[in-house]
Amino acid sequence: MMKGSSANWLEVFPGVRRHRLLATDQAYLMEVALEAGSTVPVHQHPQEQISYVVRGRLRFQAGDTITEAGPGEAVAVPGNTPHAVWALEDALVIDTFVPPRAEYLAADGD
Description:
By secondary structure, the protein is mainly beta.
């Protein structure tokens, strides 16, 4: 399977929107736009996640580790690790999930 860009931006939390760039049998790639002050609350999933910051500045928490990342920096979150994100500025992030998140594929609706 290889599905290209989804035109639909979906709000996942207040001030946090996402849309799929590409999905294969092995990975899911999406853009995430975060407004300054928005939060992705603590959650976890079995997929490994890699977040690449295109613009803006974010604070990430993965387990007990808190780090900040800006443009050109990436953060990896192992599967089943509780994690959260705070947008310190308006930001654009590319997130990759391995394997793909089935609930995101279903929500994309195309």
